[in-house]
Write a structure and sequence with these properties.
Distance between the termini: 9 Å
Radius of gyration: 19 Å
Strand content: 5-15%
Number of strands: 6
Helix content: 40-55%
Oligomer: single chain
Strand order of the largest sheet: 3-2-1-4-5-6
Order of helices and strands: EHHHHHHEHEHHEHEEH
Largest sheet: 6 strands, parallel
Shape: elongated
């Protein structure tokens, strides 16, 4: 087995607690629409917006991996249905949402930033690989740690599809045997990484059922150093 050169990390619920992040982003978008485009917020409460989202998702099945695209289409349809110019609504609202969606630093799990800094200092190439649409440019403490950032949007498919993992290999120039992928989802992260030929570490934060395919299991990314030498 080749030595590990690349450490690849999922983001949502692996590096940070994603529930409060998404709640804040949703509230921020609603407040922005209420202030700037009340015709939309008055006509689309949360249930109606979710209904519109489901309709858009069914219309663009081939884009199911791209949450930013789907949100753009939802805002576009909501604006048109309310007689508001979508060319004004969509870019402004989307930027507000994505900035709030990327306000993650205060929700990073304890000890994670420190361990990522130590790993980077030791010479590991750190890569993020997410199915979500957080923009790390809005989270400089994290952005500076990852040499490359891969998402379902950039890869054209969501994990466990092999495309995000192949993009990691392409960006780093590493072989699959030189990569360890770390994530909280048994399906998207562990199964996806193993199928791509990588070693996989499962972040089992809630002591769920055991995994037969993960190469190691930890409770938090802060524990990753303790198991790297045993992979």
């Amino acid at each position: 087995m080749k030595a590990v050169r690349v450490l690849c990390f999922d983001l949502d619920d692996t590096i940070w607690d994603n529930r409060p992040v998404l709640e804040f982003a949703s509230k921020t978008q609603r407040a922005f629409l209420s202030t700037n485009f009340p015709a939309i917020s008055n006509n689309y409460d949360e249930p109606k917006l979710k209904q519109l989202w489901r309709s858009v998702a069914l219309q663009y099945v081939d884009k199911s991996h791209d949450f930013t695209f789907l949100r753009q289409k939802v805002l576009e349809k909501a604006a048109k249905n309310c007689g508001v110019d979508p060319e004004i609504v969509v870019p402004r609202t989307l930027e507000v949402f994505l900035q709030a969606r990327s306000n993650v630093t205060s929700h990073v799990f304890p000890g994670v930033l420190d361990v990522l800094r130590r790993l980077k200092a030791k010479g590991y190439i750190l890569v993020s690989c997410t199915n979500g649409n957080a923009r790390l440019k809005h989270a400089p403490d994290l952005n500076d740690l990852f040499e490359h950032q891969v998402s379902a949007e950039t890869a054209g498919a969501a994990k466990p599809n092999e495309l995000p993992f192949l993009q990691v290999l392409d960006l780093t120039g590493a072989s699959a045997e030189e990569v360890v992928h770390v994530g909280d989802s048994l399906t998207s992260d562990v199964t996806g990484a193993v199928n791509a030929g990588m070693r996989a570490v499962w972040v089992n934060r809630h002591s769920e059922e055991s995994s037969d395919i993960a190469h190691a299991t930890i409770r938090c990314v802060s524990e990753i150093e303790s198991i790297l030498g045993h992979l």
